[in-house]
Amino acid sequence: MGRNPAGAIEIASLSTIVCAPRFFGEYARRCLVYAGRESREARRCGGWPAGVPSWSTLKPGDVVVSNFNAKSNLQGTGTTIVKLVSNSDPVTFFQGSNLGLTTALAVLGGGFVLVGNVPTTDGKNVVAPGSLLVTNLQGGLVKELKDPNLLDGPWDLTVIDGGRFVRVFVSDVLNGKVARIDLAIGEDGVQMLPGSTNTATVWTLRTDSQ
Question: Could you tell me the pTM of the whole model?
């Protein structure tokens, strides 16, 4: 029997705002309103930092949102990241296939977006340990980070962004561990460093598809 993708901590039907203080207010309200429309999709939001190149698809003040569910409202079936801009309709920033995006979402000052991926075909049983997807400034997929010991259901994350060196702490829903992923950031991409490791012992967990 496959493992269920949902975490022990229940995800609210509205988005979790992880934007910097300057993104609150109008942007936070817009994100929450949009998350409640159309298909009841659970979403996760992140703010884009200042200082990005002028040719970037994302601009300072934009909010990116990972779609956690598809229109079926089944967990682990969302395949898109959308961009929210003040006084404008949402637009698709990233579109994938055979994915299951999670609330593990972060935007890096080095010009990349990280998003967790724990795919499932039925919203209940996962088909792989999952991965961290890396997109560029135009929403194009540049890399998929995989490691079954460190990324076993990457459900959520937080980052310490040092520019060329980023430390990512990932909570894994399928093994109850917290992994520390060390990344080297360059103009041509993202590299997982050998020092990456699990930083926490196994927590008591119970998956739940509801």
Answer: 0.76
